[in-house]
Amino acid sequence: MRINRVILWTLLLLIVETAVIPWLVPPAWTERLLPHLAFIMTLFVAGFGGRHHAFLFGLGFGLLQDILFYGNLIGPYGFGMGLLGYMAGLVAERRAFTLVFFIWIVVVGGGLLDTVVYLIYKLFRLTDLSYSFVFYWQIAPTTLLQLLFALLIYVPVRRYLVKPSLASGEDNPE
Amino acid sequence: MRNKRLFILMIGLIVFIAIMGFTLGRKKLTWPEKFINDAVGTVQGVFYRPVGAVADFFRDLGRLSDVYKENELLRQTVAQYTQDQIRFNMLEAENKRLQEELNFTERQKQLDNYRYLIAQVVGSTSNPYEKTIKINLGSRDGVKPDMAVTTVDGLVGIISRVSTFTSTVKLITDLDENSAAGMPVSATVLDKETQSFGIIEYDKESSNLIMTKIDERDPLAVGDKVITSGLGNVFPKGIIVGTVESRQVGVFGLTHTAVITPAAKFDHLREVFVVVVPDVDGP
Predict the structure, then answer these.
(1) Chain B residue nearest residue A118, CA to CA
(2) What would the mean pLDDT of A50-63 be, rounded to a whole number?
């Protein structure tokens, strides 16, 4: 994993996520489609770069996002993305990294991230929505959109950001 | 090995809950936060504004047929406006004379003299539980926390965090009635300012504003325009919030609640106004 290049690209993605995506989503869906592009890159890092990289990567970008849009508290995304990046890395190290496996990771990871964030807001009583409503209203559509996006960037990420020795799935030196 | 992992997870959990608890009620930002906000905010603006202009262009193309009708309506409004202007000038002159006679202090006279700062939106969050947007005005331009933010249509939010060149705006869709955070916005009804009173909140599941704590004998009726009342002098008065859609008896039966359709749209914002209330404690 060419980690420096990935960090640069993810910074760009974070800006796209907050400045471009809101314009592309139709007005009726703005509350429902809130993709976390930096999190998808964290999952790529987990798959190709190992769990420790993914943990630091998720923690850093999660905290960056928290600080940039500091409404009530700092930390939900830092915590969620760090934890899920590590867990995704843990799972990825035991399985062959195939496309089907990656789809699973994106769907489950995306759902879990939104769930973790929801639980944190519930814990601090900042939201009183029920989980079933949140799941139907926001988590499910967002996860599907994230999956679409992940599939779109899967090939370029593999080709340009992963070193040839790692992309072939052999044991890595890191 | 497994124990160590669990141990680290527990420590991480505790540290994060501490951070979240610590940052929960805080208003000031430390310098690293300000620096990150300003640096990224500048880059966000470079993307957000051009993309917004292009998106708006295509949306406007779709609305071309409405333009003629809108133009007609605007012409009528302008005609009415010129008449109101004359009336307004007379009333203002009289008001000033009366204030002089009643020996108003300079502070009291300046109280309603709001300044509107125009701000460009540079980004919007992807966090579903606290809808915030970012604008390109900061403490350098005189923006302070808890100032009102409006569009040409009506109230959209409240300044929540300020750094040097950018600030974060919490949308009024975040004023959840059952949440621990949030600041009450007192509201009244246009033309019945002295008799009507209520608190504005937001109901996420029906995406409407709710006005609560309305008195039983309140003259508020369906179709009335709701504006901010400015009681307490922290929040400016006379900002349009929305239109009353229905009114019913509240949960406990003592007061009434009203459903209000917001006047402003909260998505796809490009330009907003920050309302600066004259400094009450200042010289």
Answers:
(1) B129
(2) 91
- For chain A, the structural domain boundaries read 3-165
pTM metric for this prediction: 0.80
Q: ipTM of this model? A: 0.77
User: Contact A67/B181, CB-based, under 8 Å?
Assistant: no
Please give the residue range of the domain that contains residue B216. Answer: 182-262
Nearest CA in chain B to A17: B126
CATH number of the domain that residue B86 is part of: 2.40.10.340
CB contact under 8 A, A126 and B33: no
CA-based nearest residue in chain A for residue B135: A69
Answer whether residue B158 is part of any domain. yes
- Residue B182's region, left for phi above 0, alpha for psi from -120 to 50, else beta, is left
Residues 6+ apart with CB under 8 A from B163: B29, B33, B34, B35, B37, B38, B41, B138, B139
Assess if residue B24 is contained within a domain. no
Whether residues A36 and B204 touch (CB distance < 8 A) is answered with no
Domains identified in chain B, total number: 2
Q: Strand, coil or helix: what is A168?
A: coil
